[in-house]
Amino acid sequence: MRAVSPSMQAKLDRSASTFCSCWRLARKDGTVMGFTDHDRDLAFGDVVYRADSGLSATQAEASLGLSVGSGEALGALRSDGLSEADLFNGLYDGASVEIWLVDWSEVEDRLLIDVATIGEVTRSEFAFSAELRSLAHLFDQPRGDSFQRSCSADLGDARCKVDLSASAFRASGVVLGTASDAVTASLSQDFDDGFFTGGRLTFTSGANAGARARVKSHRRAAHVHLTLWSPLAAAISPGDAFDIVAGCDKRAETCRMKFDNLINFRGFPHMPGNDLVIGYPSSAAPAMDGGSLFR
C-alpha cells in the first residue's frame, strides 16, 4: 500500500486540485530525463521535469493479480529531447519510467503512481508512441534452463562468465567505406573470418555515436567486411569509429575452441536426437538402457 502524507491526502480529497503528471525516464546507459504535462518546468529528486517536451500519456490499465498492465506515452520528436535517431537505435528500449502525481504548487507533495518499462516504440514523421509495460511483464520472461543442444546463456552474462572486456574478444575499428548494407573497416587487431559474426558493434563517433547493432557476417579480405542485421538511423560514413565484440553461435564446439569456456556451457550437446528417440530396438545397435552413449 502506498504511504500518503497528510498534506497530500488533504489535497487529494479536495474537489479542485493543482496536480500534474511527471515522468522520470532512466535509460540503461545511465541517462535520466524528466518530462511533465504542466506548463512550466518542475524539479525534484535532482531531476528537472521539462514542460516543453510535448509528452503526454494515455490512460493506463491495471488489474488484480499478475496480469500485465499497459499504457502508452505519446510525444513529439525534438533534437534537444527525444530524438528519432535515439529511438531508432534502441537507446530507449527497456528504459524504466516512473510516473508521478505532483502538486505543481508544492512539489514536495507528490505520489509515485506506477513504475513501468518501455516496450514497443513506433514512430511517425514528427512524433512517437511508446508502450508502457507494468513490472508484471517480467513474470512472462523465461526462467531456468531449457533442455536443448545449444547454450541457453548470453555471451558474457553471469552464467556464461566470459570476460568480454579482454582484448582477445573485442577490437576497435574505423569505417573505411560502405556499400549497400555492408561496411568496410580496419580493426585494431586481426581476427579470423566469422569471429565477430553474431557479435555486437557500438559506434563511438559520427552521426550514429552510441548506437548499437548486431553483426550479421564478418569476412576478412584486403580489409574487414561487416554486414549488419538492421540499418541505423543515420548514414554510416568513412571515419566513423566503433567498438566490436565477438559473437557466439552457442555451440559446444565454439564454446570450447573459441572461448575456452566449456565448463560454463549451458546446453546439452549430447542429448539424443529424433532419430534415436524414434529408433527401433535392434540387437546390433548399442543398448538403450539410459546409460552413456559414449561408453
UniProtKB/TrEMBL annotation:
Domain of life: Bacteria
Organism of provenance: Methylosinus trichosporium (strain ATCC 35070 / NCIMB 11131 / UNIQEM 75 / OB3b)
InterPro entries: Phage_phiJL001_Gp84 (IPR011928), Phage_phiJL001_Gp84_C (IPR018964)
The protein, known as: Beta tubulin
Residue span, Bacteriophage phiJL001 Gp84 C-terminal domain: 194-275
Ranges that cross the membrane: none
Any Pfam family hit: Phage_phiJL001_Gp84_N
